[in-house]
Specification:
There is one protein chain. The chain is of the alpha/beta class. It is about 35% helix and about 20% strand. The chain folds into two domains: about 130 residues, Urease, subunit C, domain 1, CATH 2.30.40.10; about 280 residues, Alpha-Beta Barrel (TIM Barrel). It contains 14 helices and 17 strands. The longest helix is centred in the first third of the chain and has 17 residues. The structure holds zinc ion. The site of zinc ion (ZN) has 5 residues, from loops.
Length: about 425
Amino acid sequence: MAADADRPMLLTNIGELTTNVAVDGDPCGTLRDAAVLVHDGLIAWTGSADAVPPSPDALVVDAGGRAVIPGFVDSHTHLVFGGDRAEEFAARMAGERYAAGGIRTTVAATRAASDDDLRDRLAALVAECRAQGTTTVEIKTGYGLDVATERRLARLAAEVTDEVTFLGAHVVAPEYADRADEYVSLVTGVMLATVAPHARWIDVFCEDGAFTAEQSRRVLAAGRAAGLGIRVHGNQLGFGDGVGLAVELGAAAVDHCTYLADADVAALAASDTVATLLPGVEFSTRQPYPDARRLLDAGVTVALASDCNPGSSYTSSMPLMIALAVREMGMTPSEAVWAATAGGARALRRTDVGVVAPGARADLVLLDAPTRVHLAYRPGVPLVRRVWKDGRQLPGSGTAQGQPTMRALANPPVW
Ligand SMILES: [Zn+2]
């Protein structure tokens, strides 16, 4: 049975296949009565179930007429942390307004946690993501805010994903209260030099209560000089400079985008910077949702991500993001599914995920539903039936016979 992991797989009798290879005005590249052939962890072929190339060795999986989509690409999370903030959430639901300073509570708990504690908690969250169909996840540091802890967080994140982001500039470290410029010098100096070998990206929280535009510019410029790609937290709590700075510096993505001036929207539309919307935050903080319709109508590329973190959005559910985007932000179900898959891939400048096309990674989700619309139409219902990452069915997903569940458990794929 272990050899099944290396056998080709034919996933057939797919009622609706979302490829995200645009055809005839359909960005989702929808195929009906389709099949997917997987070989060596990659998509080898897609097309009509009536026209499958000869594949006598393939393990055949019958989708039973259900829908298949690319695995979700969650391009914005903060999964490595200690403690939780359930009491802060309860207080906020009782009427207290969210302020960025709550991050410092998690910083104290994270610094106090051992590597083993943090690793175990991260593994549990990663398993939670996978069970809900996420096959690529970005993970940020940012709950250490000192050199040693930021390095620890980046190392731990790198154990489970290639998409690690250095977010030393999350908030000013408590030791540097009233000395923000000195803290920025630490972030752009020793801290960056120590963390950069473990990271692909640098990020900054450009917002009142966090970092000014000039401080943010220093952080991003230093990160770029160290060879990291650029991402920005901006325009979450009010109008500001985050979007303009992100576009000016050629960031891969600017995330939140809740408060946008017309000039911000125009700048995004004229750029290849992705606007990543994080509706779990607005849901969990009772703030106004970003206007996805306005961005899409202007021609901006939009991604959806969970922002999973213990303060402002303690959910890893991409199906929930899709439901919120459709219900609250003016997106169609197809636009939201695209944004949670192909959009996330664009936000990470990846072409090998977020699509079901020959040569792409075989990251697939079989839904317990006839169409992708059900992800928004049936909010809160666990519709993810099976998940494959690099062609291997992930543990905890599905109950099919002949699947390499134990082997996958013993040898988890890195993402
Ligand atoms: Zn965030």
